[in-house]
Each structure stands twice: as C-alpha cells, then as structure tokens.
Specification:
Layout lengths: L6 H34 L16 H8 L5 E2 L9 H11 L11 H12 L10 H10 L6 H17 L2 H11 L1 E3 L2 E2 H10 L8 H8 L15 H16 L8
Parallel strand pairs: 1-3
Antiparallel strand pairs: 2-3
Length: about 240
C-alpha cells in the first residue's frame, strides 16, 4: 500500500530498537553488578553473635576528631535491669515485638510532622545499632537504605537480647562516652550493675543528644526528658519480665 513505510525505514527502526535494548540490558547488568558489589562488601553480621566489635563507626569518628573516648564492653547480665528498662521506654518500647522496624512509630512520627507537631525520630534500637556500628549520623537516602538492610540482617542473625546487649555497649551516653560501663563509671562512679532507676533514667535521657544531654547537664529540656522516662519506667512494669 502507498501508506506503508519503505523497507529502509523499517530496517532503520529495527536497528534503533535493537541498539536501545542492548543499552538497556547493559545498564541493568551494571546496576545489578553494583548492587552485588555494594552488598558483598558490607560488614559481616554473624560474628557479633559471639563477640563484641573491636570498634564502631561513631567511636572512630570521635577518635579522628581527637576526642578522648571512654569505652569498655560488659556482658548483658552485668548491666542493671533499670538501665535496660529506661532505654527501652525512651527509645523503643516495642523492641521485643517488632522485627527491626516499628511501623506504628513510623506512622505516628510522620503524622506528627505533617500536623506541624514535634519532629521526632522513629528509629528502633536495631536501626540505631546498625547506624552506630557501621554508618554515619547523616540522614541521606543512601544511608537510610543501608541502615534498613543492615537492621534486617541484624534481626535475622542475632537474638533480641543480643541486639539489646550490643546496643547498650556501643551507644553514646555523653561526649566521648560509649556504652553502659563507661557511662556508669564516668558519671556515677559505680559499675553498670549497680545503677539506680534515677541514674538509669539520666543515662537513657542522654541518647537523643549525647553531646549536650548527659548527667550533670543543666539543660531544662534534658531534665524534663529524665522525668518523662522515670514516669514511663513506672508504668512499663510489664517489660521487666522480658529483660
């Protein structure tokens, strides 16, 4: 028919489509290769089931700045239950019932932000552990993706108790002060097993802003947060049997 394109145009169009398909295939293969390389070069989570890390990303960040770091890991049973309870009610009260991500807290945080209320984080203890061990405090999409994947791996490789034990040993409780043992000795002169409920609340209250919120700080916001945590601890007695 007179309206049909000439054979030369047909051939040109086929060559163009074949070229586009080859380019698309190469792009997909390159993307897959980059993802595989990205994931396979990530830290191995499994060894954490039996031993403490030799260091963390946050500790090395402080050391690079010349900060004197206090850090001494201790076993879970050598940390007062009051500190475990204080940290849970302050940071992740649903820790024992989720698998690394608290969808309820995430939706509540998003709703508060949309309604113009207090902007708050919704990261679980598992997510915070992944960030402290291997990542940075930056809030970029890539860092959040890495945090999500590492959190997923932590939850599948370790028990809840072990995740909490690691968290209590690596999280920052004040300037250069990491873990329950260093914090309890530095601020109160006692081992972590002897922390009182009030001392535990003071340490847990430092977690959102450890550079300025810590025992001895004069911040009124910090003092209010300590009181909030004490109130939550008194109401969350049901958590004690899970510790």
């Amino acid at each position: 028919m007179s309206g049909d394109p000439p054979p030369v145009a047909h051939a040109r169009r086929r060559r163009r489509w074949r070229w586009l398909l080859r380019v698309a295939g190469l792009v997909v293969l390159l993307a897959i290769g980059l993802v595989v390389l990205w994931v396979t070069t990530w830290p191995d989570v499994a060894p954490l089931a039996k031993r403490f890390p030799e260091t963390t990303a946050f500790i090395e960040r402080d050391r690079a700045k010349g900060v004197k770091v206090r850090w001494r890991p201790v076993a879970y049973d050598n940390i007062a239950d009051d500190l475990k309870l204080a940290v849970l009610v302050a940071e992740d009260i649903n820790f024992f019932s989720h698998r690394g991500f608290d969808t309820f807290e995430m939706s509540q945080a998003a709703r508060d932000a949309l309604e113009g209320g207090r902007v708050r984080g919704a990261s679980t203890i598992t997510q915070q552990l992944a960030k402290n061990l291997w990542l940075s405090p930056e809030k970029t999409p890539r860092r959040k993706l890495e945090e999500a994947v590492l959190s997923w791996r932590l939850e599948r490789a370790l028990s809840k108790r072990r995740i909490l034990e690691l968290y209590l040993n690596v999280v920052q409780f004040g300037p250069g002060t990491y873990g329950a043992a260093a914090a309890s000795t530095h601020y109160f002169g006692v081992p972590p097993s002897q922390l009182t409920a009030d001392q535990a609340a003071q340490l847990a209250a430092s977690l959102p802003r450890p550079s300025t919120w810590h025992p001895g700080a004069s911040s009124s916001g910090y003092a209010r947060h300590v009181e909030r945590i004490r109130g939550r601890m008194e109401r969350a007695t049901w958590l004690e049997k899970l510790l």
